[in-house]
Amino acid sequence: MPVSRRSFLGGGLAAAAVAVTGTPLLAGCASDKKNSAAANLAVKLPTYVKYGEIKPDLPGTDVVLDGFLKYPANPVKAITDKPGDGQPITFMTNIPGAIPPAEDKNQFWQALNDRLGSELQISMASNDEYPDKFATRVAGGDLPDIINIPTTTVQLPALLKAKAMDLTEQLSGDAVKKYPFLANIPTVYWKGCVFNGGIYGVPVPRGMSRTTLPLYRADLLAAKGISNPAPKNFEDFLALCQEMTAARENRWAWTRVPLAYLRQMADVPNQWKEEGGKFTSFYEAEGNADALEAGRKMVEAGVINPDSFSAKASQRKQWFNGGIASFDIDSFVAWNQYYSDNTAGDAFSVNMLDVPGLNGGQAKPWMGAALNNVTAFSKDSKHSVDTLLKIANWMAAPFGTEEYLFRKYGLEGRHYALQGSDPVPTKTGIVETGIGTQYISDSALALYWPGKPDVPQKQHAIQEKIASRLQYDASYGLYSETMSKDGARINGVLTDLENQILQGKKPVSDWAPAVKTWLSSGGEKIRGELQDAFAAAAGGK
Amino acid sequence: MLQRSKTRQQQQLSLGQRLLRDKVLLLFALPGTALIVAFHYVPLLGNVIAFKDYQPFLGIGGSDWSGWENFAVIFNGDPAFLRALKNTLILTCLQSIFVFPAPILLALLLNSLFSERIKRIAQSILYLPHFMSWVIVVALFQQMLGGGGLLNNYLRSHDLATLDIIGNSELFHVLLTSQIIWKDTGWATILFLAALSQIDSQLYEAASVDGASRMRQLWHVTMPGLRGIIILLFILRLGDSLTVGFEQIILQQQAVGRDVSEVLDTYVYNNGVIGGAWGVAAAVGLVKGIVGVVLVLAANKVAHIFGEQGVYSR
User: Fold this and answer.
1) Do B146 and A307 touch (CB under 8 A)?
2) Which of A5, A348, A470, B59 is the most buried (most CB within 10 A)?
3) pTM of the model as a whole
4) Are residues A454 and A397 part of one domain?
5) Does residue A321 sit in the same domain as residue A410?
6) B25 lies in a domain?
7) Among partner residues B42, B61, B252, which is closest to A18 by beta-carbon distance?
8) Do residues A352 and A485 share a domain?
């Protein structure tokens, strides 16, 4: 990570200098559009133009993702010009896997620079640490050209307005067609990039691929004679967990309490539910008490790794990969990541559980968050908007193109071995390609794992199974000032309480009063703001 | 007498003359002073955000003034703030009672060892943990005492009940204190050992000739010899008595919950850096700093009253 003079002195001195000179940074803001629902609605979203005609082996729908059993032979090189301008471009991101080798020792990175026509200088942090790093860099006033901005960032619209380029002119409506791979991102994902009456970023789409349910080690379950686990209710589910626990051998069924899963079982809505214009937070749902009680039972039954409450995500992933745990709750993206990180050999096999009701029947799974992050371009960047958008466009090249093959799998020989038309990654390939470029922009996920057609088959099957039952978050694309400003803080109190209840340190009955406090300390205001935004959107239609 | 004549001499010299006389010394002090000014005093100006609705992306100049609004959590007794204050005070007490005297006892113990060789080896081993970062120390404790750690694995494999130590909110304050003692006690003995070596061995000989037992010698020779340094360190400790460990706590906070683990420093972090309430966080940090200064000055005053030199003389 390069430490420039700017980043070194950034925090204190630059801030102090501003204080002394008293120069307000926003003085020159000409277009003073507010982040109102009306202004945002007025923005014409980028036109969706589907790219290419690659026929999936497992066709998807609007919800279910396309699945491919093989990589298309002779992939097309879709972009002929190098998108870069020859000058280094800086980028800051999280990375989900292991820390990759630095640029000078990373042939993938070097080849990428060559293809982009600009050196991509990437400053990385692990998933766990990225929000801290991001907040600190913002506070230090030291932002790179391309910024991966978590959607939960405090005061996101104001931040974007102060620091990011307005991309409306370049992307709105048909203008986006200049960047065919950005135009290939469905309109719904762009909705989350509209702030202050303009388009302020490029989406990194997730949605279905981010839908999060229990992943299980099918190989470990098979070793116990369990071939197709489909618990019918919570009791069944707990029995399955107990079966997979052998504490004396240091093996526990779960990496952590799957509270989100238990909530889905208990019919708790996905974030915010809307009925006749009235919004309800998932915290308020009655099912929470049952879900928490169920979680407690799991802890009591000893099916959760005893260190789960103090473990970080990276540690939990190690447990799952190492077979210390046979269940983890995560998404389709993580499912693939587990195959990348696999240390258990060829037998390694992952699958996903469906959601039954706590007392039987079928429950409604939560649709994954639409965006992984918004990628914004710094106002202070010396590069032209066009260059940065061309880079993002390159990064969004979809499955089937030569660009996709390279950006996901690297160079043949070093990073992957060609098996038929499938690029089967090598260990070097996995480590060197994990530099986080997918967070500049990305095409919608295609279900595919090179050389393992059973992976997309399993993924496609579970997606088809749950698609019709998915519950959506009604607050997506609606902005609440209070949620943005105080959300992290007031939600943190409840997360803290959840942990204490699950560990049996506090009774489940503490939940209801805590939600009341949550409502009075901001929740009620968030509800009001979301309802207003929803009404404005409905009125505008 | 000597001191008084010196003072008179100083009064006779003008400021310019004194600067000229000490120019070499002042030159030596310059780099250090510049460093302190640049990295300690200039950033202090940033505390102005305690009086602003500060947004990092707007900068200090661009954020609106908000008067004393950010201090409301302190004056109105916001429960989250009070909780942080309570935990901080509990840990301050625990650390004053258990952590502060530990190196004194250890230094006395080391000092009583006859074999220089054993003493050196013991010292080296005891200094070592100080050089580990908190991440390592916390991970070590986790690996040894955690739910899936060495101790509990042993207990489980022998069909014994497991012990819930790491991540147990009831034991958290004790755990924190033990970790600090384990990590820093050895290192903190250095100053006391230095002070012990300064005590004139003739005093011990004289005491033993007078028939003083080892305990008597300890009380009448050793302790008076250590008194100055103990008071000095205690006053300095008071200055950051409200700083009870940040990294160590934040690393372990998730498991035990904020009810027992939120202290002023983590409150500032969770509200400021994570929660975006920078102004409130700065206000709390500022008050904490002021309390620290007041404590140091007051303790120093008390030391003077009792005839000790304290941190600086009058």
Assistant:
1) yes
2) B59
3) 0.86
4) yes
5) no
6) no
7) B61
8) yes
